Structures are given as structure tokens and as C-alpha cells.
Amino acid sequence: MKDTKAMKRFSPADFLSIPIRPHGSRRNFVSRALVIFFLLHSTYLPAQQTKAPESAVKATYLYNFSRFVQWPADAAAAKGDAFSICVLGEDPFGAVLDSILSGETIGGKPVMTKRVARSQDALDCRVLYISASEDGRLKEILAGLDKSGVLTVSDIPQFSQRGGMIQFVLVGNKLRFEVNLTNAQTAGLTLSSDLLKVAVAVRKSS
Amino acid sequence: MFRDYSISKKITWTNAIVSGAALLLACAAFIGYDVVSFRRAIVYNLSIQAQIAGSNAVSALLFDDQNSAEKTLSALQASPNIIRAGILTLDGRPFAAYSRDARPEIPALPRLVAGQPETYRFAGRTVLLVRAIEFQGKPTGLIFIQSDMEGLYARLRLYVGISTIVLAVSLLVALLISPIFQREISGPIKQLAEIARHVSLDKDYSVRAAPSNSRDEVSVLVDAFNNMLSQIQEREGALQKAHGELELRVQERTTELNNINKELEAFSYSVSHDLRAPLRAIDGFSQALLEDYGEQLDSAGQNHLQRVRLAAQRMSTLIDDLLNLSRVTRSEMRREKLDLSAVFRSIAEELQREQPSRKVDFVITDGLTVEGDSRLLRVAIENLVGNAWKYTSAHSCARIEFGLKQDNGRPAYFVRDDGAGFDQRYSDRLFGAFQRLHAMTEFPGTGIGLATVQRIIRRHGGEIWAEGAVEKGATFYFTL
């Protein structure tokens, strides 16, 4: 019940670039129809002042980051048939993450969400969000992941300088991110230049 | 207007109009084709630019980075024809905008139907293209680009300029070249027309059109025309000759006839004249016989002698009349003014004096003057009045009229009586010499009087005719 309540507070269209379901789904049809309705009438809603909760934006970004990253073939194969987006430590998303990501696919693989407690459990994850609660054990966590091809994302301050790959930062009141390209390359990941283009900063060393 | 032009002018104009029309159509087709293909090219280019800009803006859209999207769009300023461009989020919010003249505004976008990646609309002098931005098969946003069509209009202006120049030059060339062809076509026709006019005006069939060197219809026409002229000339000559011969023959015949006529008249004159002498002898000696030996004859013998005398006298009158008739034909005309009414009156009075016992009422219209030979006309009136007097003698009370009436617009003089009259069926016989409609015993006469009148009237160029009915009188009309 709590999940549906959260859903009701903001319509899917309020999210920036809401991931839309693959063809054939009924929901997808409805949201498409909605989009087309807007386009047909050439009406522009005034810029939405009621911003989506930061957690929802972050959850969407986790999904969007994955779309600009290329995993090495062997690492991708080792991670199985699901595309896992994992949360390590204290979960700040709750149901929002599941409701946004459920039913999505990336590269033909269904997106799964997973909560893990240790980095060893995150080896088959594609994306790992490291909660701010793990600030203290960050070094240990990152070392545990090593070169297993996991895209690390976190809010932890100076995450990108401390061995992390993508770090959320607030610029003004807007959520943005920094990238450490070297860390990603070390893990065998290729980040698209399109992603780097919109990053606040792209670092090249740890 | 065109109808009245000369052939060469018509040919020139036809050339100009045909070549002008062909050129105009060709130019219009080229321009039309170019407009269509240019518009297609504009749309195609816009589509490519929208695709590039759109895919470059995907990450900006996904990570809500308006600055990055605007940077992407600002690359469009390399295309000077792009007026404005913009990116919208999936829910239709403006996300980033570019404007050539720094006046960012969002135009009314054409509708994008489901399953359609892009659409465009030509509005005024611009074209507006809208394209959906997709990333990894998922709709991510919307991009629109609006471009002016200055390129097209510049090209159109150039085309119109070139077309005008080409048209003017080709018309000029057509006008310059057409005299060369005209010499071949309209030259011979013009010459033909000139000669035809000359022939019909001056009746000169000796001219010929110069034969043309070509082997076309015009040369056939020229040959046929010349042939016709030759034939006409030939016929004209033959006709003239025949005419001349005829005239000559008529003249010959006329002379011949005149001679015969003169001979005849001379003969009848001399006969009449020569007949008089024996007649006088017969009458004279009969008279002498009656006077000198009358007593020795019984009444039957005397009666026979009287009859001989009467017959001789009658023959004498006849001869007088015949002489009169030939004199009328032969004598010379002297035209002068004559008061016909006065002549008529004097004759009437004379008759009245001779036979005062008769009661005849003369009704004479005064002042009828004519121009003619007074002696001949007097003879004619004498005959007409004498006739009237004679044929009313059976009536105790008679009326004789002389007047003028209009007949078919010409003045006709008439002498009318209410005497014995005649049968209208025989009216044409009245004027023949020795022709009489009444018996000698009824009304005496020689039958020459009216013949004489007719000759006199005819010599004056006039006509004479009569109307009448038995016992209802007769009217003689004559014109002069």
C-alpha cells in the first residue's frame, strides 16, 4: 500500500525522461498517448516548479547512467541474465527505486533491484549505489569490488577522488554529478562521451 | 486585330508567341521542379540537423542539463537559414532554445502522430520541422527547427531574372530570324496579293507573278495563278475579237437595212406620186362625163360614175396619207416649244366650224407645253382629234377631253372620247398601217392615221397606247 501511495504523489510525466516501457505494454501505450496528446495540442506546460523528490531523480539517474556505460564482454557475461542495480548500505530510495526501475530493460536484459550489505554480494551488480551511511568503510568496499566491472555511484563527499566513479553533487539546487574516468577505466568500463559532456567535472586520477 | 495583320506580321507574331509560350512553359517547369526539389532538400537537411542535434542532446535531456543542450543547439548557427530551434522534454516542457535573432519563442508545432519520427510544415516563408528524439529505442524528447527559405527565394529571383533575359533574348532572336523565313513564305504570297490587286483594279491580265524557287504550296499557288491569268488573257482576247466582229456585222447590216429602207421609201413615194396622175385623170374625166353627158345616162349610169369618182377620191386620200406617213419618217426633226393645248383647241374649232350641226363638248386642260417638232406634233394631234370626232359622230351628244395624267411616274398626255370605242383585245392592232377595227361604211378611213401618230410619237422618243371598250369610248395616251 505504501508503494502505491508514493506512486500517486507524482505522475510519471513529472519525472525527467521517465523510462518508458517497451512496446506492447499497456502502461507504455497510455504514457505514449499522453505524450502524443501534449504534442498534438502543442501546449507547453509551464516549467514544473514542484520538483520531483531528489530520491526519484537519483533513481532515474542510476538507470540513465547505465545506458551510457559499456561493460567488457566477459564481465557482462559473468553477471548473468539480469541487469542488477544494487544499493549498498542504508537504502535512501525505498519503494521509489523499484517502482521506477521495474519492467525496464537495458541491452535486452531486465533491470533488477537488489539491496546488499557487503561488496562481495555486489560483484554481479552492474551499478552499485553506495549509501552515505557507508562513508566510513568506503575504502574497504571499493577494494572489495576491485576490477569486477561495477559502476559505483554515491553521494559521499569526494567520492570521485576517493576511488569512486560517479559522484552526485548539488549545483545550486540541481542534482548533478562528477565522474572519475580513470577509476571507470580501471574497472574496465567505458563511459560515453555524451555522459562526460553533462558531467560537472571529469577527473582522471584517484 | 490579329486577323487584320499582314501575313508576315502574323508569322512574326506566331513565332514570337509560340517560342515565348514554349520558353515560359519550360521555365515554369524548371522552376516548379526546382522549387519542389529545393523544398525537399531543405526538409532533408533540416531532418539531418535535427537528428544530429537531437542525438547530441540526449544526455543533456536525460540528466536535465539545459546548458549542455543549449550549447548543442547553438551549433546550428553555422546554418544561417535556421531562424530558431528548440528542444522539448517528453511532456512538452521547453528545455533548450536557440534563436538566430535572439528572440526565442516557440512557434505552433505541427502534430506528430504516433509511430512517426518527424513531421514538417511550410508556414509563410519558413519551414518548421519537428522530430522526436529517441535514445536506445525510447522516446526521450522532441526537437524542432525552423528555417527560412531565403535560399529558395534567392534562387527563384535568379530563375525569374534568367528566364526574363532568356525570353527577351529569344524573342529578339525570333524577330531577327523571322524575316529570313518570311522571305521564303510570305514574300511570294505578298507578291501574289499585289499582282492580284493590280489585275482586279486595272484589268491588266498581261502581268505574271515571279515563280518561286521552292517546291511548296506557295509555288503551286503562284503557278496556278499565272496559268489562270494566261487563260483569262486568252479568253479576253477572243471575246474582244468576237465583240469587234459582231459590231462590224451589226454596222454592215444597219447600213444595208437603211439602204433598203430608203429605197423602199423612195419607191413608195414615187409610186404614190405617180399613181396620182392617173387618178386625177379618172376623177376629172368622170366628172366631165357626168357634167357634159349626164343627161344621156340614166340614173344607174350616173350612179356608177359617182361611185367611180368616190373611189378615185378615196384612193387619192389614201395616197396622200401614205405620202404623209413616209414624210413623217423621212422629214427632219426640229425641236421647239409647242403649246399642245392651243394646237388642240385650234383643231377642235376648225372641226366645229366644218360641222356646226354636231354637238361636241371639248374639255381641254390649258398650258400643256412640250418640246418637239411642231409640224409633226400638229399632224399627230390632228389625227387623234379627228379620230375622236369621227368615232363620236354616231352619238347625238359627245365629249372629247385632252389632258395630262401621271402614268408610272412619267407624264402621259391623253385624248379621250365617249364614242364607239373598240375591243381592248385588239388594241395592239390599232397602230398598224391599213389596220381597221370598223367597217368602211360605219366610219370612213384609210387605217393610216394612227400608224402615222405612232411614228411621230416614236420619233420623239415617246410611247403611245390605247384603252377602250365597245360603245364606251376610247382613250389614247402618249408620252414624249
Structure description:
The complex is a heterodimer of chains A (about 210) and B (about 475). With about 210 residues, chain A is α/β, with parallel strands linked by helices. Chain A contains 8 helices and 10 strands. Chain A has helices at about 1-10, 25-40, 55-65, 75-80, 95-100, 140-145, 180-185, 195-200, and strands at about 70, 85-90, 105, 110-115, 125-130, 150-155, 165-170, 175-180, 190, 200-205. In chain A, the strands form 2 sheets. Chain A has an 8-stranded mixed β-sheet with strand order 3-4-2-5-6-7-8-10. Chain A has a two-stranded antiparallel sheet with strand order 1-9. In chain A, helix 6 links the parallel strand 5 and strand 6. In chain A, helix 3 crosses helix 5 (about 95-100). The longest helix of chain A is centred in the N-terminal third of the chain and has 15 residues, at about 25-40. Chain A is globular and about 40 Å long. The model of chain A is unreliable at about 1-50 (pLDDT under 50). By secondary structure, chain B is of the alpha+beta class. Among the domains of chain B are: about 1-160, Beta-Lactamase, CATH 3.30.450.20; about 335-480, Histidine kinase-like ATPase, C-terminal domain (Heat Shock Protein 90), CATH 3.30.565. Chain B is built from 9 helices and 12 strands. Chain B has a 5-stranded antiparallel β-sheet with strand order 2-1-5-4-3. In chain B, helix 8 packs antiparallel against helix 9. The radius of gyration of chain B is 59 Å and the shape is rod-shaped. Chain B starts with 6 loop residues before the first helix and ends with a strand. The mean pLDDT of chain B is about 85. The chains are: A alpha/beta (about 210), B alpha+beta (about 475). The interface of A and B includes residues 18 and 194 of A.
